Amino acid sequence: MNLPWVEKYRPKRLKDIVGQPKAISDIARWAQSWERGRPAKTTALFYGPAGTGKSAAAAALAGDFGWDLIEMNASDQRTLAEVKRVAGTAASTGTLFGGTAAKRLIVLDEADNIYGTADRGGYSAIKEIIAETRNPIVLIANDKDAIPWEIKAACLMVGFEKISEEVIIRELGRILRLEKIEFDEIVLKVIAETARGDLRSAITDLQTLATGKKRLTIKDVVLYHRDQEIKIEEFLAKLLEATSADEARKLLWSLDMPPDDVLAWISENVPLVVSEAGARAKIYDAISKADIYLGRAKRGQAYGMWSYAGDLMSAGVSLSRSGALKPAKPKLPSHIRRYSRTRADRAVRDSLAKKIAVHCHTSSKIARREIIPYLRIVFKNDRKTAEAIAAALELTEPELSFLR
Ligand SMILES: Nc1ncnc2c1ncn2[C@@H]1O[C@H](COP(=O)(O)OP(=O)(O)O)[C@@H](O)[C@H]1O
Ligand SMILES: [Mg+2]
Question: Which ligand neighbours the alpha carbon of 49 most closely?
């Protein structure tokens, strides 16, 4: 079965949420206060970077306390009236069968994306909901600065941190063991470093790289990257030659690459080859709109967003082109440079430096700056000594090839 691993391994209980001890204990304490009655802070605001467990924690909280989970998108004004109704209904009125009904945990995602700060309609509705609710509410936001202070003042503020590389590595290792896939530790390090604190994207990357393999090695990472590069080169060339919207769209859907990555490639490369200024402006416009729709699609808004974004980045870009094309070799977008050879190399180098440092009682820095260059010379010229060193340091295959 090909369930996304972020779903398959979604934390079921608060104790499964990793790397957020402070947030989790605050949340649990707040939920307990709801069990005793209606607390002064009816609402908790979960804020922090993407992929750090905010939505997962809300769902796990409902699971732990046996509350019904009602998730709604706060940025949709029409749903706020509905939220108000649901929130205001007491949970303890009893059910038809005599028992007490469970509380409802109302989760409002995208609380930082309520239409324009100029229009306070959405926020004043939320303020009323917070004041009147008879059920616990969780607001979720990436950017707490985008939320009016009156709302923040009324909420229990719960900050989520970026997940440390160490914790990401542990989590990725746990998943691979459950999937029964062997791995070089170094691969996890590269993925974790690339994810910059976003566990969701780390798990997604891991699945992309590891699916269907018995063993995941650093070679797979480098090869994957090269494959992607070849695929995208072909795609960009064809996109610029497409003569109809339909053709452009088909090219995009046949590409099989995360839309974020495709957009990064397009925005890094297409404007470079289009020389006519007016056309270039139109292309930038299509790209920036695609980016907006893509953001909305990812935050779970209407499904149509995916297809708008797709249309803009394929047909929107391709049909805006006019004038001659300047030939150019595709340039790696910065955020895709993530799986580049240099990055993988650097991870190998660092692990090697650490080993040497321990073995030689020195610092990793000295190992990197002084010992590794020396070892490289040895590995080129003196096979016997090289073998002895390799054995003593228990060098792995990637480390060996790094030295060769
Ligand atoms: N702190 C965490 N602990 C465990 N899993 C996490 C954590 N953060 C993210 N994940 C993984 O990433 C997925 C998405 O996380 P999510 O809670 O939606 O992030 P956010 O809402 O902060 O953007 C989860 O299903 C889970 O697999
Ligand atoms: Mg979320």
Answer: 1
Pairing of strands 137-141, 43-47: parallel
Mutate to test the pocket of ligand 1, among 5, 6, 45 (most ligand atoms within 8 A of CB): 6
Domain 5-159, what architecture? 3-Layer(aba) Sandwich (3.40)
- Per-domain residue ranges of the chain: 5-159, 165-216, 224-338, 341-403
Sorted by sequence, the CB contacts under 8 Å of residue 297 that are 6+ apart come out as: 303, 305, 306, 309
CB of residue 197 inside a 6 A radius of ligand 1: no
What are 82-110's pLDDT values in tens digits? 888 888 776 554 445 544 567 899 999 88
- Report CA(247)–ligand 2 centroid distance (Å): 34
The tens digit of pLDDT for each residue in 154-196 reads 999 999 999 999 999 999 999 999 999 999 998 998 889 888 8
**Cα Rg, the chain, nearest whole Å:** 26
Structure confidence at residue 1 as a pLDDT band (50, 70, 90): low
CATH number attached to the domain at 224-338: 1.20.272
Angle between helix 259-273 and helix 304-311 axes, rounded to 10 deg = 20
* 55 C-alpha to ligand 2 centroid (Å): 4
- Residue-level pLDDT at 117: 44
In angstroms, the CA 311 to CA 314 distance is 5
**pLDDT at residue 256 is higher than 70:** yes
Q: Which residues neighbour 113 within 8 Å (Cβ) at sequence distance 6 or greater?
A: 74, 75, 141, 146, 299
pTM: 0.69
Query: What pLDDT is stored for residue 118 in this prediction?
Result: 42
